[in-house]
């Protein structure tokens, strides 16, 4: 990081050309344009057009492998913890910034930058409240250790935990610096604390993962059972300690048919009561409900 300073001793802010124009302002002193997009101390390269294209391509490939019959998706961006923290650090420590979008939250800038490419790659529209959610999770662990030490030093009481939780996090190697905890502390970061944070440039682009998830579908009905050797739920062959016979139950037979029909990743069968293995279910049948999760095809359910 360059050590050239502003009048009040703050180090030079290293930004990509886009963040410099939108956040800092072209003529603002103490700002340097980085040569590689991922070196930006604010966006970490997430707003680089080539990187956005790479993410959009991954979304398109995901849909080709496992398509949905939806016409629109709702976008959810999970930003790196360090980026969430840095946005507040820069805002508190550099009140002189006067870019055209300096008052716009960084997450909004991200959504605005990604949506056109994602719509093009997916062939879908984007809207709020759809039944299909596209989640893009960005990860950068390069500054996790530094961020944790910084927050522990200035807000030690925020990390006090019960013995049970402390034991769990120590045994699971979980970082105490979670996104929820960081977001809770953002309002407490004042200018004097923000200026102590060292805004180092990343050495690489963030990694990312793409996932689609559809709202569950519930289908109700009634089933009749004419066999005296078919259980309602999975049952072992002869010995209860033996492995269960796959597909040999009412719930499995019903769920498997519906999973295939709607392209669901999982299904859960709930019946109103139950009958013994050797008892038939006649008449109008027994009411049941099936919860289908992450269905890829739901067009047959529309009116």
Automatic annotation (TrEMBL):
A Pfam family assignment: Pus10_C
GO biological process, one term: tRNA pseudouridine synthesis
The organism's place on the tree of life at top rank: Eukaryota
Enzyme Commission number(s): 5.4.99.25
The keyword Phosphoprotein belongs to this UniProt entry's keyword annotation: no
GO MF terms held by the record: tRNA pseudouridine(55) synthase activity
Domain Pus10 N-terminal eukaryotes as annotated: residue spans: 40-204
Stored InterPro entries: Pus10-like, Pus10-like_C, Pus10_N_euk
Keywords: Isomerase, tRNA processing
Top-level EC class: isomerase
Pus10-like C-terminal domain location: 218-298
Record protein name field: tRNA pseudouridine(55) synthase
Native species: Ancylostoma caninum (Dog hookworm)
């Amino acid at each position: 990081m360059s050590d050239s300073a502003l009048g009040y001793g703050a180090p030079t802010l290293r930004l990509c050309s886009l963040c410099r124009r939108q956040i800092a302002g072209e003529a603002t002193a103490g700002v340097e344009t980085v040569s590689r997009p991922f070196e930006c101390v604010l966006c970490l390269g997430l707003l680089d057009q080539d990187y956005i294209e790479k993410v959009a391509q991954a979304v398109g490939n995901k849909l080709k492998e496992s398509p949905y019959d939806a016409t629109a998706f709702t976008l959810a961006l999970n930003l790196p913890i360090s980026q969430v923290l840095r946005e507040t650090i820069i805002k508190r420590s550099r009140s002189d910034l006067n870019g055209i979008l300096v008052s716009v939250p960084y997450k909004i800038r991200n959504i605005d930058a990604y949506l056109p490419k994602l719509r093009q790659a997916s062939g879908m529209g984007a809207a709020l409240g759809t039944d299909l959610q596209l989640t893009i999770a960005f990860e950068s662990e390069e500054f996790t250790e530094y961020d944790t030490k910084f927050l522990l030093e200035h807000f030690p009481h925020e990390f006090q935990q019960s013995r049970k939780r402390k034991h769990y996090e120590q045994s699971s190697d979980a970082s105490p610096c979670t996104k929820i905890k960081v977001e809770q502390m953002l309002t407490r970061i004042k200018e004097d604390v923000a200026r102590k944070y060292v805004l180092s440039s990343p050495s690489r682009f963030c990694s990312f993962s793409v996932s689609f998830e559809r709202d569950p579908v519930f289908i109700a009905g009634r089933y009749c059972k004419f066999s005296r050797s078919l259980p309602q739920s999975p049952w072992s062959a002869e010995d209860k300690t033996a492995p269960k016979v796959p597909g040999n139950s009412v719930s499995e037979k019903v769920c498997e048919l519906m999973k295939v029909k709607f392209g669901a990743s999982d299904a859960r069968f709930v019946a109103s009561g139950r009958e013994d293995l050797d008892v038939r279910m006649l008449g109008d049948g027994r009411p049941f409900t099936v919860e289908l999760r992450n269905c890829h095809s739901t067009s047959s359910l529309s009116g």
